[in-house]
Amino acid sequence: MSVKITREDVERALSELTILERIARELQARLLALESSIGEHNRCLELLDEMAKSQGEIRGLMPIGGGVLVEGVITNPDVFKVNIGDNVFIEMSLDKCRGWLLARKQRLEQARVEAGRALQSYSERIEAIRRFLASIEK
Distance (Å, rounded) from C-alpha 9 to C-alpha 56? Predict the structure, then answer.
């Protein structure tokens, strides 16, 4: 006994495939953004660790946007202004700032894991639909 595949079945599969491929592309873009943000957090944490070791002022190049750097001096490496969202800044000590960044990095890593799982699930469904469509072309 064979199963009769209708034109509607094929159209439904093609429609689902199109939607799932779009979602997969969006998840891939989200994963790239999460990786970039996690890397930025890691670099910031490394810099904070170096600042904790230093005594007094710290000289360095600071980005001001557009690929432009300016030479700057950090005169108080013990207090940081931290954007906690919606351009609301609060002062934090080095240790508190480091802890806040670590917690945010952990949330980003968890979001990366979840997005990766979702992408895997969607990819499996995409492959199943492609196999189905390939089988009816024969």
Answer: 71
Mark residue 92 as left, alpha or beta (left: phi above 0; alpha: psi -120 to 50; beta: remaining): beta
Give pTM, 2 decimals: 0.83
How many angstroms separate the CA atoms of 135 and 129, rounded?
10
**Radius of gyration, CA atoms only, the chain:** 24
Longest dimension (CA), the chain: 83
The span from the CA of 133 to the CA of 136, in Å, is 5
In this model, does residue 113 exceed pLDDT 60? yes
At 74, phi and psi to the nearest 5?
Answer: -95, 110
